[in-house]
Amino acid sequence: MAQNDFHAGAGSREGSPADAQRTPATPGGWRLDHSYARLPAGLWAEVLPSPVRAPQLVAFNQRLALELGLDAVALAGADGAAIFAGNQLPPGAQPLAQTYSGHQYGHFTTLGDGRAILLGEQLSPAGARWDIQLKGAGPTPYSRRGDGRAALGPMLREYIISEAMAALGIPTTRSLAVAATGEPVWRNEARPGAVLTRVAASHLRVGTVAGAAARGDLAELGALVDYTLQRHYPEKAGSPNPALALLNAVVARQAALVARWMLVGFVHGVLNTDNVALSGETIDYGPCAFMDAYDPATVFSSIDRHGRYAYGNQPKITQWNLSRLAEAVLPLLHPEEERAVALAQAALGEFAELYQHHWLAGMRGKLGLFNAEPEDAALAESLLLWMQTTKADYTNTFAALAEATAAGCGPITGAGDDAELTSWMARWRQRLARQEQTEAESLRLRQANSPAVIARNHRVEAALNAAERGDLSVMTRLLADLSSPYDYAGADPAAREPGPQGGEAYRTFCGT
Ligand code: AMP
Ligand code: MG
Question: What is the pTM of this model?
Answer without folding.
Answer: 0.94
